[in-house]
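Bit of a strange request maybe. I'm writing a small parser for structure token strings and I need a real example to test against, not something I typed by hand. Could someone generate the tokens for this chain?
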Amino acid sequence: MAEFIVLERGGVRWQIRPGLEYLFGPDGLRLEQWLAAGQAQIVKHGPHRTVYHVVLPGLDFYLKHNRLADCRARLRELVRPSKARSEYEHARAVAARHVPTFEPLALGEPCTGTLTCPTRWAGRDSFLITRTLRETQSLHSFLETTLPQWPMRRRTRLRQRLAVALGRLLARMHNAGIAHHDLHPGNLLLRLDAEDQPELFLIDLHAVRIGAPLSWRARRANLILLNHWFSLRSERTDRLRFWRAYEAATRWIASCETIHRIADLERRTLASNVRIWRKLDRRCLGNNRRFRRVRVGDIAGHAVADLAAEALASLLTNPDAPFEQPSNIALKRSPSSSVIELDLPGPNGPRRVIYKRFPVTRWSDPWAALFRPAPALRSYVMGHGLLLRCLPTPRPLAVWHRYRHGLACEGYLLTEKVTDALELHSFLDRLYSLPAAECRRRLRRLIDQIAHLLATLHQRRLSHRDLKAANVLVSPANGEGEVSLYFIDLVGVRRLRKLRRWRRVQNLARLNASFLNHPGLTRSDRLRFLRVYLRWGLRGRSGWKRWWRQIAEATADKVRRNWRKGRPLG
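Reply from user aminoacidic:
Good idea to test on real output. This should exercise your parser:
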């Protein structure tokens, strides 16, 4: 690696590669000049860091400007090197251990012991310049946006190659004694060659520990960290392919212990994810970069940060007015709630939304809201809770209540509308209009999807006690014959530390009851659903008869209760 030279500009001491002196003027980096000329653009900005992408003739690089945003950061820097220094040293050490990463070009730290910065205890910013890795993109953005647009065969082939490449990279890191404590797809860059062969690079190296080859305990912690993201979005076969590549690169012998390690990793990942979700579930009720509080007079609530205040102004001023306008489509009017569909104005044009009102039906409702969240607030929080757990539901945009004497009274919920979606019953009626063979094929695929989605809901420690056909939306099939499913009406959703069997049976029975008299569903279809839900291929079929009997008994109880109360099954 070439030697670095030292120069001081504008109170900052820089260690730079020879030949890069032209980047600096008398007052430091020529950043303002690059921004004015359009040669630099802001990639990421926050109170603690700003990242710029700079493209100059003959040089393409990223500039990371680290700031001491709060007292904690200032105190931390009294006993640790600056973030730029840490990442600079880690990048050189990682490259020296032959793990692919970025190339540092320059490091900038405030001068100490000089007239420009006389004391080493002053609050300081630090800078890191790194060469751009050509033709790369974030693995996260590639998997979320680019890969789904590819044809199925090419997508499957690349997924398999990525799993192998990622397993080999992790093994290489761990064998070299490198543990990344912020390991997720956003901190990996991907480059594809002409034949779709992937090459991965490790970035954002501030949270890296470098030492001796990792023990199994340290490896497991790092693997769980990466699996947080992939366990929610990737297939089990791809995760197994990753593990086999990792195992081969670490030269471990396949054995019964290996199978136990894989199962242990999956269990620990789920437990870790559950802890993280519980910490983040109330984030939607605060003021932060994603959410904000709203208030107009006696109306107060919460909204997502990307929803313009102007769009909500008229609704907050008079929340009941849209329900009286004949131009808005009424979807439901009952004593418990009213639901309409309307256009919400926005900077990019109107967006179609669903607006729901929860009236006060009993005198005790406002007092009950002091001890548990009101239905509108529960729906808003659990909507974001489902999205956090990668479960499909229309995104909640805002929630508010009218307050009287400090008590929450009428509640209002605003959510996005799923385009062209149908309730599950209506979608099935449409299926039956198809030719018999095509109808059975699509029905089986739909049953498999619903059963798998419900098993995932329960695996992630959520229960939906009002899981009826009317509360499941189905969007039209895509080019590969798959439909998209969405949970709605989330008042009955609960987060649980441990999901008991009787709750799972209740959820399944509620869904079964809504299809009790449906002429198109046979006992074989119900057994197919149960087989997929219980994952016979993974866990075997032992005990399914007991599940069948318990669901049948719970369904009969539900039918009797609704008959006594005069309610339809829905």
